[in-house]
Design the sequence.
């Protein structure tokens, strides 16, 4: 009778639940359609105007064709490619690099196709026109998508909108880990609003350190009722012994009737999407976790990027480097450059070069100032109002100008543009096996630690971000981090 009563109760709950779908996703996707349309028209229109100075130019082919027609055809194919590549899918919009990647792949495919068609049919479409439209499109579409994301982030942080409410099903520790991971990102789409915890022990809530309490609503048999109580848009199933594969399947059938999304957290920590591949084997969806790639073509691409980027920064920054060196020499005793021994790739030491921002001999004063160390965890040494910093050095640190000479280290292969924070030898001595994986790649001038708070980070957060980068690094991620670094530098976040 108990089982029958439970099923009747579940059926009654289903009947009472209104269909709840986060409408902000669909509305946001529709707005992106309009944004993409404007961006595509601006790109082809700008290319035609700059190349020909008007809209009535003809293409030299068997028949005279107005370039305005060519632009409209390219724009239509471009919009179709963006749709075919699912660049406005609700699964990728609003966060992560995948949205940008799909936009760029669609754009490159369109212009590659235009070039091939032009060559095969001898249309002789002006190369200058294509060379303007392609980078303009990548820039404009990328900028528009970024601006749209910023609007969503502001709506989340200031007004609590554009949020997907999530009910988590799993053990208390798994619920705590998932809620903490989602809570770290202020712009995260998901907000944990409740939990169902399988097991004989009943509790009214689960304490999430730093984020407050999450109410609980019984075990896995009460998921549908908990969805009603919390007004959730999605259910996330994480590590639990009571809810097996068949139970998850049955739960998905129940949620399907309500149009509630079912998310399954595999419990793999700090592994990005490109390393995860779904492989159906014997009717089971197995997740294959690819090994981190530190060699081959990816390493060559990274080195090429380091060489080009560092050379450009040093050449363009030369008018700034010389006055800075003079200011340091005239305002304090000691050398212009400060050389610090750091530990690099595979634990090999190297001399990192920076503009000197402290008084000469500041290293010898560390023991005297140890009591003022503000670093949580005790491994790093950080003081917000460090008395050793010179007036000029304070300005250089505020804008990260003191780090510009490190691009010389990049050219010498000691460092990379993007990578983990370069550690001191005394820090490495305290590393456990977990933290030592930071040494599998070259340290960077910037990295996730730089764009996520810099000196404001705790030791644990610094290690976590560095390891996430080591495990998942890619060229797209490096480019995004480099772009975000500019914002972090001008925002002075964590710079002292």
Sequence:
């Amino acid at each position: 009778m108990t089982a029958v009563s439970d099923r009747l109760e579940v059926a009654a709950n289903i009947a009472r639940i209104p269909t709840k779908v986060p409408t902000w996703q669909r509305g946001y996707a529709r707005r992106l359609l309009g944004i993409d349309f404007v961006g595509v028209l601006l790109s082809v229109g700008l290319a035609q105007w700059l190349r020909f100075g008007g809209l009535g130019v003809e293409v030299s082919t068997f028949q005279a064709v107005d370039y305005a027609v060519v632009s409209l055809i390219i724009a239509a194919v471009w919009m179709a490619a963006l749709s075919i590549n699912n660049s406005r899918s609700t699964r990728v919009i609003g966060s992560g690099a995948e949205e940008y990647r799909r936009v760029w792949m669609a754009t490159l495919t369109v212009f590659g196709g235009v070039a091939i068609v032009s060559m095969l049919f001898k249309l002789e479409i002006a190369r200058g026109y294509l060379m303007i439209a392609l980078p303009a499109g990548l820039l404009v579409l990328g900028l528009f998508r970024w601006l749209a994301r910023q609007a969503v982030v502001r709506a989340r942080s200031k007004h609590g909108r554009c949020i997907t409410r999530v009910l988590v099903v799993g053990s208390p520790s798994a619920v705590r880990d998932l809620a903490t991971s989602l809570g770290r990102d202020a712009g995260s789409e998901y907000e944990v609003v409740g939990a169902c915890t399988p097991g004989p022990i009943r509790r009214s809530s689960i304490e999430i350190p730093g984020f407050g309490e999450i109410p609980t609503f019984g075990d896995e048999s009460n998921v549908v009722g908990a969805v009603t109580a919390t007004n959730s848009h999605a259910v996330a199933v994480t590590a639990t012994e009571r809810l097996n594969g068949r139970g998850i399947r049955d739960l998905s059938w129940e949620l399907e009737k309500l149009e509630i999304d079912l998310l399954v957290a595999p419990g793999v920590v700090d592994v990005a999407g490109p390393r995860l591949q779904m492989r159906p084997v014997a009717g089971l969806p197995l997740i294959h976790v690819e090994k981190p790639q530190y060699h081959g073509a990816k390493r060559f691409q990274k080195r090429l990027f380091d060489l080009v980027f560092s050379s450009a920064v040093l050449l363009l920054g030369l008018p700034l480097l010389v006055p800075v060196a003079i200011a340091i020499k005239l305002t304090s005793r000691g050398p212009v450059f400060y050389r610090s021994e750091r530990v690099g790739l595979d634990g090999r030491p190297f001399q990192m070069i920076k503009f000197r921002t402290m008084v000469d001999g500041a290293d010898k004063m560390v023991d005297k100032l140890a009591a003022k160390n503000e670093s949580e965890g005790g491994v790093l040494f950080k003081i917000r109002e460090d008395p050793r910093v010179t007036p000029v050095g304070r300005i250089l640190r505020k804008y990260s100008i003191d780090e510009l000479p490190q691009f010389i280290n990049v050219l010498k292969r000691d460092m990379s543009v993007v990578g983990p924070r370069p550690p001191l030898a005394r820090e490495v001595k305290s590393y456990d096996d977990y933290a030592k994986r930071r040494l599998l790649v070259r340290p960077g001038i910037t990295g996730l630690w730089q764009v996520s708070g810099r000196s404001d980070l705790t030791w644990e957060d610094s290690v976590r971000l560095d390891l996430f980068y080591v495990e998942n690094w890619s060229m797209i991620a490096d480019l995004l981090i480099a772009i975000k670094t500019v914002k972090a530098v001008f925002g002075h976040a964590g710079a002292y």
Summary: The chain has a mean pLDDT of 80.
